[in-house]
Amino acid sequence: AQSVTQLGSHVSVSEGALVLLRCNYSSSVPPYLFWYVQYPNQGLQLLLKYTSAATLVKGINGFEAEFKKSETSFHLTKPSAHMSDAAEYFCAVRPSKAGGTSYGKLTFGQGTILTVHP
Amino acid sequence: NAGVTQTPKFQVLKTGQSMTLQCAQDMNHNSMYWYRQDPGMGLRLIYYSASEGTTDKGEVPNGYNVSRLNKREFSLRLESAAPSQTSVYFCASSVYPSYEQYFGPGTRLTVT
C-alpha cells in the first residue's frame, strides 16, 4: 500500500521568498515520486520526478526536490518565489516494482495551494 | 501534438441522466486513467487501463463504467448520475517504462 501526506493545505509566501512545500510518503516498495502543478481551471502539469537516480531532482520553473529515504520525504523547494508560481501543487507516489495491483497507479496527496504576495 | 484531449469541457446533468466523457491521446501511450478531483481530496483514481483491451477499477469506481475503445481513446460513462458525482474529471495517459502521467484539461460536471 502507498500513501502521500502533504503538510499544509495552504502556504503563503512573499515574492522573492523561499518556497517550501512538504510531502511525506509511505510505500511498501521503493517508490517513484512526482510533483505536479495545477493552475486554475487547468489540468495537472509535471514539475519533476524521482525515479531512483539522483536524490536531488531539478524540475521546471526553478523548482527542485530532494528524496530523503530516512525521513520518507520529498519536499519541493524554490529559492525565490514569483507571482506566477501561485497554483496548487500535488505530490504523488507509485511503486517502482511490478507486482501487486497498485503497480502503474499514482496515489496523490491532497494538494497544497501556494499563494504569493507582492 | 494535441496531447490528451477531453470532451466536453463543461456539463450539467439532472439526477438520473446518463452521459459519456470522452478522452483521447495522440502520444501512442499504452496506459490511460480517469480521475475525479474534489476540493481537499486531491485526485482519486476511478478506473484505469494498463493497455488496450484491459481495464481495472481504481479507488472510487462505483457509479462509473469505462471503455477502452482503442489505443487512443478511453471513455468514462455515468449510467445514472447522482449529485455526489459533481466533480472535475481528468483523463491521463502514460507509457511504459516511463513513469509520469500526462493530463487532459478536465471536464467540469455538475449534477443537480
Description:
The complex is a heterodimer of chains A (118) and B (112). By secondary structure, chain A is an all-beta fold. Chain A has strands at residues 2-7, 10-14, 19-27, 31-38, 44-50, 56-58, 64-68, 73-78, 87-95, 107-108, 112-117. In chain A, the strands form two sheets. In chain A, strands 2, 4, 5, 9, 10 and 11 form a six-stranded mixed β-sheet that branches. In chain A, a hairpin with a 5-residue loop joins strand 6 (56-58) and strand 7. Chain B has 112 residues and is mainly β. Chain B is built from no helices and eleven strands. Chain B has strands spanning 4-7, 10-13, 19-25, 31-37, 43-49, 56-57, 64-68, 74-78, 87-94, 102-103, 107-111. The model of chain B has no long low-confidence stretch (mean pLDDT 93).
Global mean pLDDT of chain B: 93
Apparent shape of chain A: globular
Order of helices and strands of chain A: EEEEEEEEEEE
Total E-strand runs of chain B: 11
Shape of chain B: globular
Major pleated sheet of chain B: 7 strands, mixed
Output the keywords:
heterodimer; A: 118 residues; mainly beta; B: 112 residues; seven-stranded mixed β-sheet; four-stranded antiparallel β-sheet; globular
Reconstruct the topology from this structure.
The complex is a heterodimer of chains A (118) and B (112).
Chain A (H helix, E strand, L loop, with lengths): L1 E6 L2 E5 L4 E9 L3 E8 L5 E7 L5 E3 L5 E5 L4 E6 L8 E9 L11 E2 L3 E6 L1
Parallel strand pairs in A: 2-11
Antiparallel strand pairs in A: 1-3, 3-8, 4-5, 4-9, 6-7, 7-8, 9-10, 9-11
Chain B lengths: L3 E4 L2 E4 L5 E7 L5 E7 L5 E7 L6 E2 L6 E5 L5 E5 L8 E8 L7 E2 L3 E5 L1
Parallel strand pairs in B: 2-11
Antiparallel strand pairs in B: 1-3, 3-8, 4-5, 4-9, 5-6, 7-8, 9-10, 9-11
